[in-house]
Amino acid sequence: MVTIYDIAKRANVSPMTVSRVINNSNLISESTRRRVEKIIEEMDYIPNKAARNLVGKRNKLVSLIVTDIVNPFFTNIARGAEDKAAELGYQLLLSNSDEEVDKESNYIRATISAGVDGVMIAPSGDISIHNLNMLSKYKIPFVLVDREVEGITSDLILGDNRQGVELLMKHLIERGHRRIVLINGPDYVSNAREREKAFKDIVNREKLENNISPIFQTRYKQESTDDIVNEILSVNVPHRATAILAANNFIGVSVIKSLRKIGMRIPEDMAVVCFDNPEFIQDFNPFLTVAAQPAYDFGYIGMQYLIERINGKIIKNRKMLLPSKLLVGKSS
Amino acid sequence: MVTIYDIAKRANVSPMTVSRVINNSNLISESTRRRVEKIIEEMDYIPNKAARNLVGKRNKLVSLIVTDIVNPFFTNIARGAEDKAAELGYQLLLSNSDEEVDKESNYIRATISAGVDGVMIAPSGDISIHNLNMLSKYKIPFVLVDREVEGITSDLILGDNRQGVELLMKHLIERGHRRIVLINGPDYVSNAREREKAFKDIVNREKLENNISPIFQTRYKQESTDDIVNEILSVNVPHRATAILAANNFIGVSVIKSLRKIGMRIPEDMAVVCFDNPEFIQDFNPFLTVAAQPAYDFGYIGMQYLIERINGKIIKNRKMLLPSKLLVGKSS
DNA sequence: CTGTTAGCGCCTTCAC
DNA sequence: GTGAAGGCGCTAACAG
């Protein structure tokens, strides 16, 4: 391994001078700078981050913790985050928490151990507060994306959930639906609570039949929704809901599968809409009607915020609320 | 920041003893071990990787370099890789090369600088050889996934491209197609060369009309294929190709878009098949007929190989060839 | 503008 | 079983 000492020897300078060169110090004469740079090039010298980090320097390393990179929503967040990070010279550690606090907790510890400068996280839920406090204890800045956590103040990049629900509900109502069911995510995730609140408000405001517009709860994962769908269909036809609003793409897809399994036609027998695209290419084969959140921007802007924080430029907490776009498919 | 010195003081032992505890040395009495462990717990001590790394220890950090995490093929590779890495206590650095050698080169340097123990990479192409040699120079083990590189020997996790092409061609031929066009990836990527070779062999073997079965080349990216499609359609109908084999999902999707743009019906006017799912959920809304590669396994097995290499368990190079599965959609 | 000294947190080596 | 000394590669603080 080539070190600054090797460079120094060859260049007839002290290691400190080499250090100054690789850190772009301007307390150096142009001639020695050039000489040293040439030798660095020749010897393929690559600085050792561990050593740098040990003396208290920034590590230029950030951590991204999502629930599941396979969800296109988070895939795009990851890409946005990585693009911005790379642009600013940072590297990205990736973890999948699967919405499990314990896994998340392990990742947080590993992440601290690795000496990251900051963390961008879509927290598992409100119980993530302990993990986030751990970060605070180590003075590691973080931003929350997609979800906030009760009792935590930080920079936030969130979807405008009320606006998204309005978009989907308005669309369904325009198509004549009056009996709409919400299949929501878990109530320990902030965006599920917000989506539910918006849903209820609209049901009241629009005087929809809210006795037949109950709210079901599942998880934001690839899980069967057969039971919930069966329960919805157990209501006899004149009173049965005619449309389902799924709180995210995984739920939306599961609902479609459950409906198809028992021969229901979509949208004739049941309309389905959801948050977030289940597919990564927007305009290719749209089946589901969705409120598409600008996931890439979540990641890109979030990383910008995070690195500003790392550099100590920003003190007060910021909250960015990003709107969804309605993409009408065949499912409604 | 809590260090082994803090723990040592509180436990009335030397820092060395603490070090032994956190490294599960067995040269320690049960009683002191327990005492130290208790204090570690109390003080929320987290080891500093930078320090560990500096004294030459494993960093428990690996790097994954893909061309684009947004491609579901690589998304699933990433998930498989991260799962295996986490299982074995490793963390994952993620980078997107966009199939550009210079970007890749920067990531490789950053990755070395970060002190990774190993690298899993889908190389940009044959020119990646310099980047891989850089890794060798630093004695960092690596495995190649999805693509091999001429002149590089290493562990390999590859798709069985011949088998995949056979699958798709057999399917098309069974449906009566005799004039098939290949829209391939760039020839500096090994799998493109293999797919082309298999395609040609089958065209000859099956005595397909190979004067009208030319091969076009584009990139494995989300780029327009309008020009290529127009060229294909410029042939008059009795002689025009009736099916297109796209070498990956991005190309497949682009081709569909190009065809739709000019009002061609799929599959009536033109059948389309490709490698890899363009969607992350297999059984939801299948439009394209695809040869689906087991991407998750690429990542999972690849990471297993890599970490075995890191631990010095394996010496000879291994090559894992994974078969595709045919998923028939509406596009053919 | 350049060099010297000391130390970051941990582990290897060698004592005891 | 436990501890002391030294050093990994780098940079902050000081000196010249």
TrEMBL record, chains A, B:
Highest taxon in the source lineage: Bacteria
Occurrences of domain HTH lacI-type (ranges): 2-56
Alphabetical UniProt keywords: DNA-binding, Repressor, Transcription, Transcription regulation
Matches recorded under Pfam families: LacI, Peripla_BP_3
GO molecular function: DNA binding
Family matches, as SMART domains: HTH_LACI
CDD domains found in the cross-reference section: HTH_LacI
Name of the molecule in the record: LacI family DNA-binding transcriptional regulator
